[in-house]
Amino acid sequence: MSTYQLGFIGTGNMGGALAQAAAKSGAGMLLSNRTADKAVRLAAELGCAAGTNLEVAEGCKYIFLGVKPQMLQALLAELKAPLSARTDRPVLVSMAAGVTIRTIRETLGLPCPVVRIMPNLPVALGKGVVLISPDDTVTEDELTALEEALKPAGLLMRMPEDKLDAGSAVSGCGPAFVYLFLDALRPAISAGAGTCRTDHDRRGRNGACLRQAPRKAPIRGLQPRRNDDRRRPRAGTARRPRRCHGRSDRRLRTHLRAGRTLSRNNRFHIQQPRLPLKAVWAAAYLFATDPSD
């Protein structure tokens, strides 16, 4: 007889995030971790119990395997004895990436129902995605009860196991690429791309914005000297202020503050913000990746 509905073995980044989401459903939970203090602290935070791997295998209906793939074989060997002694029907829920249901069943050697899931970290906030792939021995009632317990995690999607790796690549790494793309756009926006006015009379002939945020530009090299400046002043006379094609130093600094630079023909023009190269690569990756493949 199951004492707890959900049992988590491994409360790391992914296991802990999923446990935080499942605790909102109100189901009875038992947490276990290789470092016992970590499971105790998380259990106190979520208002549930903490125990050992043996207690989870003996008293939980759904046993979540939240360990790394290279540690799964040793964990299944540890759980084989308590699972074989049970008279009810426990369900194993594996979060190990790349380990198929067939491998889990062959390693365990028991006819336990197995469900593979692939969550992402936003499940801790209730905004994540959980991909669910059950084997053919899991009943509809068992799968529905599992989905009801994981409903606070976010979006739940059933899919065949052969599509699980591709789906987890999109749901797990997709948010990271989106945030990378947005972070790459931030320098361009802060450089003045977001301060352009949409009025047609405020734009030039080519549609370029005439008002942008100030940009720091080096003054050296932007003030071409005239031949008169190279002459030494006469005795008893003050040196004339240096001019730049009829523009005084004061007007030159005004143009530099406005984001204008000096072109090759010694005329001031507007310097447009450039998109960082990493933003271009991120956008190309997102458009080239097709989730349906």
Task: Walk me through the topology.
Elements: E1 4-9, H1 13-23, E2 29-32, H2 36-46, E3 49-50, H3 53-59, E4 60-65, H4 69-84, E5 91-94, H5 101-108, E6 114-119, E7 128-134, H6 140-149, E8 154-158, H7 164-190, H8 249-257, E9 260-262, E10 268-270, H9 277-288
Parallel strand pairs: 1-2, 1-4, 2-3, 4-5, 5-6, 7-8
Antiparallel strand pairs: 6-7, 9-10
Helix pairs in contact: 3-4, 7-9
Structure, described:
- α1 (13-23) links the parallel β1 (4-9) and β2 (29-32).
- The chain is built from nine helices and ten strands.
- With 293 residues, the protein is an alpha/beta fold.
- Residues 196-205, 243-247 and 268-272 have low confidence and may be disordered.
- An eight-stranded mixed β-sheet has the order 3-2-1-4-5-6-7-8, sandwiched between helices. It has a two-stranded antiparallel sheet with strand order 9-10.
- The chain is elongated.
